[in-house]
From TrEMBL:
Domain of life from the UniProt record: Bacteria
Low complexity bias locations: 31-49
Residues annotated as domain UvrD-like helicase ATP-binding: 275-613
SUPFAM superfamilies (UniProt xref): P-loop containing nucleoside triphosphate hydrolases
Record region (Disordered): 31-66
Organism of provenance: Adlercreutzia wanghongyangiae
Name of this protein: UvrD-helicase domain-containing protein
Binding residues for ATP: G296, V297, A298, G299, S300, G301, K302, T303
Record flagged with keyword Cell membrane: no
Gene3D superfamilies: P-loop containing nucleotide triphosphate hydrolases
Coiled-coil intervals: none
InterPro entries, per the entry: DNA_helicase_UvrD/REP (IPR000212), P-loop_NTPase (IPR027417), UvrD-like_ATP-bd (IPR014016), UvrD-like_helicase_C (IPR027785)
Keyword line: ATP-binding, Helicase, Hydrolase, Nucleotide-binding
Pfam families linked: AAA_19, UvrD_C_2
């Protein structure tokens, strides 16, 4: 009942390994070399079927001992010395921070002792103020000194794990000696300001990533600097031990990549700093543009590149870019947790990582879910068109009320609206109205705070409540004090009214929609869009927004994000062939939406796949539309060919599934049983019994074992082994959507794929 997948698959010619339209200067050619069938290996690694004999790294054992290779010995000595220096820098930074802390404490104490707060005369007030400013300046100076040391310490912490991964030797002038630079995941200088390790994001490090020898150039401070790259040496290092080195004198060789790929998968995504490929580097270091759209085949490193780009941006905009200004929209929460260690490992903080539902929730009224996302761009444009001639009516406004009290009535809101009748209904008018309503609410709260009934109400509060509110019991010595204390209480009591004004909830968006569009039941996408169009609701502080798996969003969802993050630069990464839901925007439409909302869209492609064995890549590549080819960067990993099992009936199928899962459960690898939908996952778990865990949205990927999960949750993730539970025509009919779903599922596997079919195999695989 079993047969092996046929392969290799017939594929058309190989496309350019990568292309970026606009934004980057052209780089010299390098990268993988395509084989006849379209598959290639980076650095001349063995193709499928060949046996790997060594990986090209020089190791002491290869040389008959360290002494036999003077380069190895010299590099180990340099590493030992660097490691010692890093440890010392780390120790010195901690000591400096301790000293600063002690000094700060001492200064604060002295200053507090000396600070004579005196408000008697205007001169005294000025003097007191000057003393306080001086004190704050000293504290600030301490903070600054500490933050410099803290940054140094963070770099050292990163580097102590692996001080550097490469060395380059550059000759800037023909007669001058070459300059040696060691490149690492962070940069640090010694006490004489000599660069011990160069940060991978620094301008000069670019020549390492361009993967060419000889004449190279890079840009620093707006100037193009030319040099001759004489040596490009890669290292395998852990802490202070050199395991091997490799001199890449041929452009196409990247032994470090091969070594990295052969290490296999882990439960958390790893940084690819040392092995970023040339075409990936073009995305990582791409010029700042309003929108960059990156199309990449499965496993081409889109997510990895995205993480490296964020780290790069933090470096480039050090001191001005805060992680709270960067948003990463991720396909699901499991994926969010899968990637959340990459940046901390690089010594950086994570950006805001949100799913679509998490992004939308705070913009929606309480109790309303994200719901259906399938909304066309036209439907949103219809909202804009209808709003053009829209005039407010009384029914569009709601009372501002809290704690059972109407604080500003809908009639009053309508009067405020009438004051600005000369303006069209839109953000300008609504903002002016909101300012006035805010002032009215404030006046109303002050009135309540001045009311004796309120003071009595406060006096009746339990003592603990009074202590919590005021830090003391409510015993005002004057009317003024009573009003001030009462205002604290009133603001808390009517906090929801203040929130309503902040959120402009006095606008009845549903009622407006009914009049505007002539229909009920707006989707959440339309609802938020209308609210943005009316109020200007947005996040103007966001500077970068990265949308991974961008092919999984509808045009409406994308337009909402483009408009909400109105000043941000967007990085959109996706694979048109991994769109797994109905109603998502085709690749060209994604571009069109962003062009309409944000102007020009730059584009890059990543066409080399790194995740899977060549056999698995061939299998999922066979599902690509004709003419779309990819290259494969893979190392020889002794892995069985994909297996396809067609069972005659349900019993035989269940039996086969249990066998596959039982086999997998006995290993330390992670196996995913991928099912089409959530409901199937539960059904499958019953078939499998205790051997399998159903993975939910709130879980993280385990290191090993067997997990059952729906395709939507498997998005963006990878597993040692993938089991497609049922590849029958019922689950995968011959449609474009099913083809993309199957491609996505198979391409999650790094080493092994088993495809089961209950009764009959989908025609998508029948060749
Ligand atoms: N330059 C590289 N060096 C080392 N490993 C790499 C490199 N590029 C990609 N990889 C590895 O390939 C695998 C796939 O990368 P990643 O998940 O970033 O790809 P993707 O394009 O986002 O995939 P998909 O769209 O299929 O989810 C990961 O294990 C990643 O570590």
């Amino acid at each position: 009942m079993s047969r092996e997948a046929q392969q290799p698959v017939d594929r058309a010619g190989v496309l350019d390994s990568a292309a970026c339209a606009g934004g980057l200067k052209p780089a010299p050619t390098a990268g993988g070399v395509p084989t006849a069938g379209g598959a290639s290996t980076a650095g001349g690694a063995p193709t499928a079927g060949e046996v790997s004999v060594g990986d090209g790294f020089s190791r002491p054992a290869d040389q008959g001992g360290e002494a036999a290779d003077p380069i190895f010995a010299a590099e180990q000595a340099h590493l030992t010395e660097t490691y010692g220096k890093l440890e010392k820098i780390g120790r010195d930074a901690v000591a400096a921070m301790e000293a600063v802390a002690a000094q700060a404490a001492e200064d604060k104490k002295n200053m507090a002792d000396e600070l004579a707060v005196n408000f008697a005369t205007w001169d005294d007030i000025l003097e007191t103020h000057a003393d306080i400013v001086a004190m704050n300046n000293i504290i600030e100076a301490h903070d600054m000194a500490n933050s410099v040391q803290a940054e140094r310490l963070r770099a050292v912490e990163v580097l102590l794990r692996e001080p550097y991964f490469a060395k380059i030797e550059l000759q800037f002038k023909p007669s001058a000696p070459t300059k040696e630079l060691y490149i690492g995941s962070a940069g640090v200088s010694d006490e004489n300001y000599r660069r011990l390790v160069v940060d991978w994001r620094s301008p000069v490090a670019e020549v390492y990533y361009s993967q060419a020898m000889g004449p190279v150039s890079y840009e620093a401070d707006g100037r193009v600097i030319r040099a001759d790259l004489r040596l490009r040496r890669q290292f395998e290092i852990s802490r202070d031990t050199l395991h091997g080195y490799f001199d890449s004198d041929v452009a196409i060789e990247d032994k470090l990549l091969l070594a990295s790929l052969s290490r296999g998968r882990s439960a958390h995504m790893q940084a690819i700093t040392a092995t970023i490929q040339k075409e990936q580097n073009q995305v990582v270091r791409h010029a700042d543009v309003p929108v960059l759209q990156v199309a990449g085949v499965a496993g081409s490193g889109k997510t990895s590149v995205l993480m490296q780009r964020i780290a790069y941006l933090f470096y480039q905009h050090r001191g001005t870019l805060d992680p709270t200004q960067v948003f990463l929209i991720s396909p699901n929460p499991v994926f969010g947790r899968y990637i959340d260690r990459v940046l901390p490992d690089l010594g950086e903080r994570n950006p805001e990582i949100l799913t679509w539902a998490e992004f939308l929730a705070p913009l929606l009224p309480a109790g309303r879910g994200a719901g259906e996302g399938d909304v066309s761009y036209e439907r949103l444009q219809a909202i804009d068109a209808a709003l053009a001639g829209f005039a407010f009516e009384r029914s569009d406004f709601r009372d501002i009320a809290a704690a059972g009290t109407r604080l500003v009535g809908g009639d009053a809101v309508a009067k405020v609206a009438a004051k600005f009748d000369h303006l069209p209904a839109g953000p300008h008018r609504v903002t002016l109205m909101n300012e006035e309503l805010s002032a009215r609410l404030e006046a109303r709260l002050k009135g309540i705070a001045a009311d004796e009934d309120t003071h009595d109400e406060i006096a009746d509060l339990p003592i603990e409540e009074q202590l919590r509110l005021f830090g003391e019991t409510f015993e005002p010595q004057s009317d003024e004090e009573a009003r001030a204390l009462a205002l604290t209480y009133v603001r808390e009591k009517y906090a929801d009214a203040l929130r309503q004004v902040r959120a402009m909830d006095w606008l009845d968006v549903d009622e407006i929609a009914r009049r505007l569009m002539g229909r009920d039941g707006l989707t959440s996408v339309e609802w938020v869009y209308l609210k943005m169009a009316l109020t200007g609701l947005s996040n103007p502080d966001a500077k970068y927004v990265m949308i991974d798996e961008v092919q999984d969003y509808s045009a409406g969802q994308l337009a909402v994000m483009a408009r909400y993050f109105r000043r941000a630069n967007f990085l959109l990464l996706g694979d048109p062939n991994q769109a797994i839901a109905e109603g998502t925007a085709p690749w060209g439409e994604i571009r069109a939406v962003f062009e309409a909302e944000r102007g020009a869209v730059s584009a890059c492609r990543l066409m080399t796949s790194y995740r899977s064995t060549p056999a698995i890549t061939d299998l999922f590549a066979s599902l690509l539309p004709p003419g779309e080819a990819m290259e494969v960067s893979s190392v020889q990993r002794e892995a069985p060919a994909p297996e396809i099992v067609v069972a005659a009936d349900a019993d035989e199928w269940a039996c086969a599934l249990r066998r596959v899962v039982d086999d997998a459960a006995g290993t330390d690898k992670l196996t995913a049983v991928i099912v089409p939908y959530k409901s199937e996952a539960r059904r499958m778990a019953k078939v499998l019994g205790e051997g399998a865990v159903v993975l939910g949205e709130h879980d993280s990927l385990p290191d090993g074992g067997v997990v059952v999960l729906p395709l939507a949750l498997a998005k963006g993730l990878e597993f040692d082994s993938v089991v497609i539970a049922d590849a029958s025509p019922r689950v995968f009919p011959v449609t474009d959507l099913a083809r993309r779903r199957l491609y996505t599922a198979i391409s999650r596997a790094t080493r092994h794929v088993t495809i089961l079919a209950n009764g009959e195999l989908t025609e998508l695989l029948a060749h």
